[in-house]
Amino acid sequence: MIEFRTQGFNPYATKYSPFFDSRLAVSAGANFGLVGNGRLYILNLTANGIQVEKFFETQDCLFDTAWSEQHENQILTAGGDGSIKLFDIGVGEFPVAGWQEHSREVFSVHWGLVDKTRFASSSWDGTVKIWSPERKESLVTLPVHSCVYSAQFSPHHPEIVTCVGRDSHLRVFDLRTKASAQNHLTLAIPIHAPPKVPVPGYGQGSVGPTECLTHDWNKYRDSVLATAGVDSVIRTFDLRSPSGPVNFLTGHEYAVRKVSWSPHLSDVLLSASYDMTCRVWTDGSNVEKGGGGAGFGRELGRMDAHTEFAMGVDWCLFGAEGWCATCAWDERVLVWDVREFMRQT
Amino acid sequence: MAAERLSSIVSQLTPGQKPIDTITQKNPDDVVITLAIRTPLCKAYKGGLKDTPLDGLVFKILEQVVRKSNIDPQMVEDICLGNVSDSKAAYYVRAACLAAGFPNTTAASSVNRFCSSGLKAVQDIANQIITGSIECGVAVGAEHMSTGGDRLTRPFVDDIVHSGTQDAADCLMPMGQTSENVGKDFNITREQQDLYAAESFRRAEAAQKAGWFDDEITPITVKVDGKDVTLTRDEGIRPNTTFEGLNKIRPAFPEFGDRSTGGNSSQVTDGAAAVLLMKRSKALELGQPILAKFVGATVAGLAPRIMGIGPSLAVPKILTKFGLTLDDIDVIELNEAFASMAVYCRDTMKMDYSKMNPRGGAIALGHPLGCTGARQICTGLSECRRRKAKVLLTTMCIGTGMGMAGIFVNEQLD
Questions:
Q1: Which active-site residues of B does the annotation give?
Q2: What does the alpha-carbon distance between residue B97 and residue B87 come to, in Å, rounded to a whole number?
Q3: A201 — pLDDT class (breaks 50, 70, 90)
Q4: What CA–CA distances, in Å, run from A191 to A268, A298, B323?
Q5: I need a surface site. Which of A66, B19, B252, B304 has the fewest CB within 10 A?
Q6: What is the DSSP track for B175-241?
Q7: CA distance linking residue B345 with residue B317, whole number of Å
Q8: Where is the signal peptide (chain A) (predicted)?
Q9: A320 secondary structure, DSSP code
Q10: Confidence at residue B15, expressed as pLDDT on a 0 to 100 scale
């Protein structure tokens, strides 16, 4: 396990570069992001451990970061003052572009993975905005009317955007539809709806809605997503039958802050939680590994070296499958191999 | 700002969710309102609706429901009419709905809980939707006070009169007397009542001038003295009403007291209002606009002799049921049966007067008994839309000693 200390700053998100296998970004804020400056660290994984290549300072905490898919040296940050900034690692200490439209904290930024000319942002002001790095104003604003914690472009389709937020709904927007009273909204799935197939030990009725803090698209199955949030349960959804969750992954003891599906295995995902653990799960869908198809999910392993809320996870795309980076409010970024923590079952 | 970030993290840690989030969340099974309209409120005996008896009034409002909502009338399974004075109300609503464009597969009934009948009709339809009896219904509140007929034609039977229960005997008490009782028991002076009434008129006049009522009123064309007239404005609002002017008016119930007058009591009025309700999933399926969510309603009983204080029991009861406080409420529609009870309820519950009856109330607009419960929803939701506010509380006192309250969440926030 390799460690890096973000001295004086508490990390919120960490992302591997899509272009370089040894480059990692961490967005952080002073004083747990409540007040004070923000910092974006650009880190290199070398034979001598993690080295800081560069860092950028900002006026307010940085809640999220996303590498550009078009330009190998550029990276976006989501700021607590409502600003989105584009930094270029080779260019000075100030951003090369900035956008100030959100009226409250921007909680996530996500670069389009199919149409690499656009990115999305979501904010406490209740909107998701779609941008192009070349344009000064946002292209589309999707109203959600309650704090949106996470928004993403689908990795399978260039025009599908999803988001989750405080009102416990997973919203799917299709940007191809005409702008109308629906504002591109195609589906609004209540995350707290009862499961389609009764899950043992979970009960039949709808549990109360709770804030949903994170979601992620499955990288292999184009209609599957995972969401997680304050009720500590990770749910998987299939958009082909959207009335309720397919799978429940229970085990975390506090809110789950981030989930990320593996880029290598279609049934594995990684989560970071306020209970200070990062856990690996399977949703049971991989028949070869013994899952029954739409099987039952279970925990495969956990890493509890963090000593504060675990806030961000990201898988390494390159090299041996199974390496990931996690960051937590204990001012540490840990890079480790998931396979070392899998339990023998 | 830092404090807000901190409290958002803290709320992510605490397992339960805040009550305000519970009531504002959107579930597919919620009962939602997709249309809320009302006729103008006209003075009884001499106003625009004097020649339109109850069946005509219900017919007119149901016609507007069909027209304004674009709903396929076959989808409406039940219509409930809240009406107080007319014992034949059930006949009228049935015939009127069949004439207004609803097929004979649409059922109809009437309810009477006096001044809360409009809200009770909404609750009736909502309860049927919640239990799955029906999927879509219309609640109507309508009253033709020009016809009269509110009082009992004979006293109660001996068993009741001689039961020795004062409360039972007090059910015969005229409303004016209950108002004077409230004024005396709780020391609401004539001056306080007239000040309140003047403010109600001022707010209603300002709202009417600013056109705020335009999105709740649906104009209707009726016959007045044989001629067709299109009614568009509430008639009860007397412009330039002042405290001094009101203070000169003689007491209306001198045998009971000297504080309630015609100027600081609700007016005798004709009017109708209608609310279209269905499940949220049904509204999305039919493409109906979702105006608001019906959260719940409840009733509380008390001594008939001071029936006016009803809201001061019903409101805490409903807030407790949902874990809310008055701070969570954005707009309050409290029926001004009399200034005595309005002042008492506002001050006892420490209501924020800027949130309460911002467009005036029954003192200025009128109180067509069975219509009021539904009318408050139309006005309250229109005000929520104007303010871009979310939570509406409606409440009223009820003759014979009750209070009712309902909570709605406005969803038209754009």
A1: 115, 367, 397
A2: 18
A3: low
A4: 20, 19, 23
A5: B19
A6: HHHHHHHHHHHTT--HHHHHHHHHHHHHHHHHHHHTTGGGGTB--EEEEETTEEEEE-S-S---TT-
A7: 14
A8: none
A9: S
A10: 58
Nearest to A208 among B17, B413, B414 (CB): B17
- Do strands A74-79 and A83-88 pair parallel, antiparallel, or not at all (unpaired)? antiparallel
Neighbours of B53 (CB within 10 A): 15
Phi and psi torsions of A29, nearest 5°? -140, 150
Contacts of A160 (CB under 8 A, 6+ apart): A153, A154, A172, A173, A174, A175
Handedness of CA A195, A196, A200, A203 (dihedral sign): positive
Instruction: Give pTM, 2 decimals.
Output: 0.61
Question: Which residues touch A138 (CB under 8 Å, ≥6 apart)?
Answer: A99, A101, A129, A130, A131
CA distance B54 to B110: 12
Average pLDDT over chain A, rounded to whole?
91
In this structure, chain B runs to a length of 414
**Model pLDDT, residue B254:** 94
CB atoms inside a 10 Å sphere around CB A20: 14
Contact B26 A167 (CB under 8 A): yes
**Predicted confidence band of residue A103 (pLDDT cuts 50, 70, 90):** very high
ipTM: 0.86
Q: Which of A34, A104, A149, A254 to mutate to test the interface with B (most CBs of B within 10 A)?
A: A34
Taking CB atoms and an 8 Å limit, are A169 and B15 in contact across chains? no
Separation between Cα atoms, residue A127 and residue A200, nearest integer Å: 37
Interface touch A193/B28, C-beta < 8 Å? yes
Beta bridge partners of A269: A261, A281
Nearest to A168 among B2, B13, B25 (CB): B25
Q: pLDDT-based confidence at A321, cuts 50/70/90?
A: confident
